[in-house]
Structure formats: C-alpha cells, structure tokens
Specification:
- It is a single chain.
- This protein is of the alpha/beta class.
- The chain contains nine helices and twelve strands.
- The chain has a six-stranded parallel β-sheet with strand order 2-1-3-4-5-10, with helices on both faces. It has a two-stranded parallel ribbon with strand order 6-9.
- Helix 2 crosses helix 3, helix 3 (70-90) runs parallel beside helix 4 (123-138) and helix 5 (158-166) crosses helix 7 (219-232).
- The longest helix is centred in the first third of the chain and has 21 residues, at 70-90.
Length: 292
C-alpha cells in the first residue's frame, strides 16, 4: 500500500511516517513540501507519490489564536479538505483525516458518540467541523477520526509544558473541570495502520469514528500523573504541588469543552482493536526524554 502523509513533521504525522515498511510505503510531505490549500500542489504530489491512501495530518491547531485568524484556520482545516477530497475522489484514493473533540460543546454528561450533534464553541472547532463536512461532500471513501488531548515526541504538548513548568516552579495550577482522555501520537498511528489495513479490504468501513484511550481524567489529574511518573523514573528531582482550578479561573480567548470524552466503541468494533492505556505510552515518552 502506497500512503501519502501530509503534515509529516507533526506529532501524529511523524509517528505515522515511522511505521513505513514494505507493506505500508509512506511518501511524507511537510508544510514546506505540500501546501494543502493549493489544488496544483496537491495534484503535483499525487502524481509523484501515486498513493492508494492519504493520511492527512496537516492542520491549524492554535486554538486561541484561531479566534483572531479565522480565515487561516478555515483555509487549512476546512477549504483544504474540499480540495483533498476532490482529488481523492477523482483518483479513487481513500483518505484518513483527523478531527477533534472541539466539534462538541462539552455539555453532554456522558461520552460523545459519532452521531451526537456537533456544536463547536469557537473558531477552531468550527473550522474542524467545516472540514468534516467538506470532506464528506467530496468523497465517500473517507475516515474521519476524532481525537482529543494529543501528545507526542515532537512539537509542544501539554506533557512538555507541565514538565517545563515543573522544573522551575514549586506550585502549579491546572484546570480540573475539563474531562477527557490523553491521546498518545504513537497510539493514534497504530490505529491508523489498523484502519488502513481494514479499509483496504472492506469498502463499507468508511465513515466517522472516535479514538480514545483509557482511563478518562481531568487536566489536573493528568498533570499530577505526568510529574509523579517523571519523578519515579528520575526525570524530575522535585515534584511541585499541583492545585486544581476551574475553567472560569483560567483566562483563555477560546472556550473549551468541559466534557471531551469520546466513545470509541464503534471504532473498536469495526477495526478490531481495544482502547489502549495512555499511561503506558506516557511512561515510554518520558523515558525517551531521559539523558543518554
């Protein structure tokens, strides 16, 4: 299978690229190699890679800045999906695309399922929802995989921010009323590989799915787990006190959903995999940060 990966230098894209082998042959393109807002650039790279499948990891992800850059957020997260989808449809190529828990308003008391009505709270979520709609309209051979709280080995994530602050402060305050599940980029990439193998032989598997790990917890509880695990393996000498605060006490330009829990039952059933524990991936990630 020939796979074209966009956004190959990001948290998820880099992990998908790392899976490349004889049966999963990746052609990887970063932002400087492929502008997904350009139809000509997309056509040129498709001619070059001749893919059987596209994994779109390119995205505008600056949640707060999106409130001031609505045009750019929609160009990358929505309009580009119409372009990618049309090229995929014309060439009979499937596409896996990532969306987000931010398409929901977080007011539901239980985990969200795929058929729940979206209601984004801000520009970022609205742009991702528009991208879903554009892709569905362009081609039926799509997988939209909604993920939340992603962390990985490249770029900046909540894990890296907590580690950085834990080294310089004795006390941290972290939001405790937003609930979800961390999504390790390595686990997402593994799911992509499983999905790719399934859709290669099962035409009726296309559609929208949720990806999540276990267990769910708050950002504050996640931060506490990060610093305690880092201390256990020798990455941190002193563990700061982590105090809970409410979302209302944390100033942010964009509103966040309080409930980011995604029910992944449909994906587990369709692609025959069980939800992974994020804590195992967290420990592996933190160990990779230890000095050689």
């Amino acid at each position: 299978m020939r796979v074209l990966v966009t956004g190959c230098h990001g948290q998820v894209g880099s992990e998908v690229v790392a899976l490349s082998d004889e049966t999963f042959q990746v052609s990887a393109y970063g932002r400087g190699d492929l502008d997904i807002t350009s139809a000509e650039a997309i056509d040129r790279r498709f001619d070059e890679a001749m893919p059987d499948l596209v994994v779109n990891c390119a995205a505008y992800t600056a949640v707060d800045r999106a409130e001031d850059e609505s045009g750019l957020a929609h160009a990358v997260n929505a309009d580009a999906l119409a372009l990618l989808g049309r090229v995929c449809a014309d060439r009979h190529v499937g596409i896996i695309h990532f969306s987000t828990d931010y398409v929901f308003d977080g007011r539901k008391p239980t985990p969200y399922v795929e058929d729940d009505a979206p209601n984004p709270l801000g520009v970022y979520g609205a742009s991702k929802l528009a991208g879903e709609e554009q892709l569905r309209a362009a081609t039926h051979r799509h997988i939209i995989l909604r993920v939340s709280w992603v962390f990985g080995r490249v770029g900046r994530s909540f894990v890296d921010t907590v580690l950085r602050l834990a080294r310089s402060r004795k006390r941290l305050t972290v939001v405790d009323d937003q609930i979800g599940s961390p999504s390790p980029a390595t686990a997402i990439a593994d799911a992509v590989r499983r999905i790719a193998e399934t859709v290669d032989t099962t035409e009726d598997a296309w559609g929208t799915y949720h990806f999540s790990t276990v267990p769910t917890l708050s950002w504050c509880a996640f931060a506490r787990r990060i610093v305690s695990t880092a201390a256990q393996i020798g990455l941190l000498e002193d563990v700061p006190e982590i105090l809970p605060i409410t979302t209302a006490e944390w100033p942010a330009k964009a509103a966040r959903p309080l409930n980011s829990r995604l029910d992944s039952t449909k994906a587990a059933r369709t692609f025959a995999y069980e939800a992974q524990r994020w804590d195992r991936h967290l420990q592996e990630y933190l160990r990779s940060r230890l000095p050689a």
